[in-house]
Batch of 4 targets.
Target 1
Amino acid sequence: MASQDTFRQPPTLTDEDLNLTFHATYTDTVNPFKVSVKQTFVEQTRLKASLTRFIDTEFQPPNDQPEYTDGPPTHAAKTIASHWANVYDWRAVEDDINTQLTQFTTIVHTPHTAYKEPIPLHFVHHRSPRPDAIPLLFVHGWPGSFLEVAEIINLLTHPPDDSVPAFHVVAPSVPGYGFSPSPRAPGFGYRQAGAAFNTLMQHHLGYKRYVAQGGDAGDFIIRYAAVDFPDAVVSLHSNFWVVPPTDEDLKKLKEGNSTSEEVDIIRRLGGFSSKRWAYGQLHQTRPLRLAHAMTDSPVGLAMWIYDVLVSCVEEENVAKIWTPDRVITWTMMHWIPGPYAAFSLYKHGAADGAISMSGVENLPYVKQPVAISQFPHDIWYRTPLEWARRNGNVKWSAVHEKGGHFPALETPEVLAKDVRQFFGNAEESGTGVFR
């Protein structure tokens, strides 16, 4: 085991040590946490929103193209800015978060990786009253946060009856999101996040074995955790099981030998890469270039995020789900810590080969049982099962007719049912080890 001197760590890290915009203390032990953003920062944010400078001449897309062709229109920015400056009540949001979610902080280490800095973490932890509950690690992606777990957590910890499994749910904030401070040194990527969360589960919470669920970058993180800690991660459920086409797939398409399912997914991915992946390309190449502007403009950051949010849910649900309050609250999870670390996670992902300028590339093969759920307003919808099995031991799959990229928020009952169904099948998922 590595000695304590291996790590550059004081016994306690506070908000003053880390120059945070919220009150927090992180130690090697697990400590209760309540969200409490500093009042000066809340007031400064409201002022910045009120001083937003808007685009005064906006080119309108042709009538046959959607309103968001060039990005969020100015009227959307004005709506968010006005609501933020005049209506939005952060303290009420804080109270809701603290009432709904039981939160903690700690410091973890990853001695088996090249990253040697202490890693302060914030996480939600709800234990089920069921004695047979299964420990479940729930990991978010970008531009989400730990708040994605809010609508689904009680469905998982308190299922309707004993015929379906219950879960002890742990939902950490990826470092640089929400209330997990940004990494203090380069070299922290998806793999390091997986290692940090494994340390949290095993050594801080005592869950020697657990299952995991993730979407977006959360999927990448749990894949690395499964590969690096096969004795700990029993099985995975993903709602973002990304598998790019191979050269042979593209050759088949060119020759007219692809199935209709293969044609559809290749076209979908091509459209995403050429029209919607610009944010990822910038994140993985010049994250600091973007972060300078976004760190100083809350409404600018909100529009950067909002452009992704509105494209990833059912069209008829956009106004219902992405209210001004929710858009601002989700933006706050990046505005509070500053967006640079979350942007630069893409760059570290590119260095690992997980993502590229065209999208997702080489993620490791997962030997443990895997389940995937697919939703129509997501990128990887109707991925052929043959493709899915190239990247993992896929045992179970569900293709839904409703929902999008954030199913824990948009369709929590559907996602909870899928999670229960897979992990409730001990033979398929391997969860018999918890009995």
Target 2
Amino acid sequence: MRIYDEIPTSVLAQFSTLKIEQAPNFRDFRQAFRAKLGRNFVVPANSFDNVKGEFPIGFFIWHLGEETIFTQTITDIFDAKGNCLGNKTLIAYDSFNSINDWIISTRNRPGERNIGFMSAKGNDFQNTNYIFIINDKKQLPHPRGTWITTKNIKEISIYLAVRHSIEATWLNDRDQFLYPNDGWKSDREFQNNCLVFTLFSNSNNIQSQHGTNHWIPFSEEEVGAQDNFESHFMHDFIMGKVKEEKPQQEGTIQDLFTEQEAQTPDGNSFTPTEPLKFSQEAQAVLDAGRDLWRYYHKQAGANPNASYYDIKMHFQGTKTTKSGKVQMNSTSEDATYNALLADLRQSMKLLAAHIEPKVYDYGFLKK
């Protein structure tokens, strides 16, 4: 800021990450640093020696003599060899609320019951690996996120699917996820696609050893389980069998034997009262997942409450790293399991591609 204050008519060159242009923590700086942005371009950070990581480095020319608040620009994109890859719109996001503001609004609904915890950090692609689901926040040394409940499972699934369905790259690394418009509320297919994506995402780390597994989307009969499941919540949710009584309003008489569909504060239903209808892509994921569950439950000593994570760990096993951390192996020696998992992952890729356009349509990301 010294150059801006002491040489106000100069031309300033910036060579850095995109924090000045896009980071939420630089919002106040952008309001104070009022200069016209001239020519600019971005390249991958690892174009430079001794630089690791997948993120953009930008070259920007600022004309300090022309007072303008930066809101957005169209920047040229070059690869490490200097080839032009097109252009991209860089947005400051100062006038937008974040996706985390949106998910916070789903907390503390009447009658909710916890079924898991979602770790959530940051609003951009660089924090994608911090978006995952576990049983309880006690599993994390410094938990940041939100409880998953019987009343916000729909929004949580959308959140996770939106954050993970689009691959993180060096170019979108700093792009911010935003508070959506209301279009998603009436799109049942999108909601159901996101639910299925979340159930079979590699970021769904629910484990039966850490508590009740509420995330089994099948019945015991469908997968040939050797014993009853401890929880049928997810299957009941999918089948529209989770019934709740609507709170009786003062001055009215309610039929106590009539089960009502629960509502969010804005009147949007969060509990289905009939079986969910799935797209072809989502149904393919469910079918592939069911085949994997069936194969697992044929194994001796199969845990009836096993989660997707548990099933993968059963077949892939674990290893201990040099630091003493226990990790799941990346492969299995079971050829049948490998084939079933490959089918499931391929179906998940197709489902992710089906979800992606809606991420932009509903304003979760800007193009």
Target 3
Amino acid sequence: MEKGVLAGKSILIVEDEALLALGLEQDLQDAGYQTVGPYRTLADARRAASEETIDAGILDINLNGELSYPVAEQLLRRGIPFLFVSGYGGESIPEDFRHFPRLAKPYDPADLMRRLKELA
């Protein structure tokens, strides 16, 4: 897999679906990224977003019924870029968050890497 612009940087993974999280983690590591997580719960993701060294984030919006927007807000406060991944359409995202990058599930790993490059 092609090395990304953020290669060597730490990417926060927030994803509640175990198989997707493991695949995402492997794809990122194969592309040269360091991974932080994956975190499957809002509480764990919030802790990581405030305490860990992170260069960018990939946030699933729905974490077993809890929404990841508080994590996005923490990353914004820290000046850390992120993108949302979701199986839901853009109309379900609150207006305050609609302008942030979003990748629809299921996604191609090449599309994810392209979107990460755009964050840099």
Target 4
Amino acid sequence: MNYILSWQDSAHNTGGVKAKKDAEFFLNEEGFISIKIPVGKMQKLLYIIFKLPFILMKIKSGVIVVQFPTGTWTVLELITRCIKKLSGAKLVYIIHDIETLRYWSESDNNRKKEIELRLLKRADGIISLNAKMTEWLRSKGVKAPIENMRIWDYNNPQSARKMEEYNRTIGLAGNLDKVQFLKKIPSDINIYIYGPNKESNYPDNVKYVGNFSPDLLPLKIKESFGLVWDGDEISTCSGPLGNYLKYNNPHKLSMYLSSGIPVVIWSKAATAEFVKNARVGILLDDLNNLNTKLNKISEDEYKIMCSNAVNLSKKMRKGYFLKTALQNLIKQL
């Protein structure tokens, strides 16, 4: 038997929570049994200390999947130590984020970096987001077998969007307090934004639509393209969050594509090559050039992108990329 640790989060309208729930859903389809950690700080701690060890002692073989990161570093340290010491199963991580790359790359949190790397090295196998992240893991001495997911799957309850008229509009979904570049967006781009923490001083061509759950959001986005961009600038993706796109698989990318919506993505993003090869969007160095790029795309070219996105969405809705990576990884354990 194989298992997945199910960490119950109290948050709801976030891509991170949606990604973890979807991963568990798709693994349950593959026969993985969920080990459910309860909601609540004290309930979690009591469960991990007093109940989880007895569950693990009964597991003599197979795989236990932990979604990385889970909880605090102290909690994850305790959980993974118990898995390695008490069970006979292999410890496999599905990586969602690496904080060293996301927040600490330009800081001196050496102690936290050491803890994170030690935890990563504890795994018997790893599902990495993409080849760029895997390259970084190898450079840090992670020796366990690694398989690349390439892109997040997305359990999308809404139907893939039917072909829309190409109107050169842009949609952006996400946590809006992280996207400071919106204040500098060129006036010739019409952009519609979705998500929490909106600000009050956007330019006139930036229109706020609303904040919707990850399951409802695909039904609301009507624009020609979904935007994948981060940081403070429009000339490039800057700062820690912009740089993180070089390693990360943005969950908004999967939301767009699983809905049949082509994308505009930073050309240096780790997932840019995937978008290019799948012919589901535009790669861009600088948002100042976006309107020129949009005007060069014909109606027929746009239809091809939409068709490709719909075809790709069929795989993503079935968990194809995670399931394939995990099947390939287990063969190596």
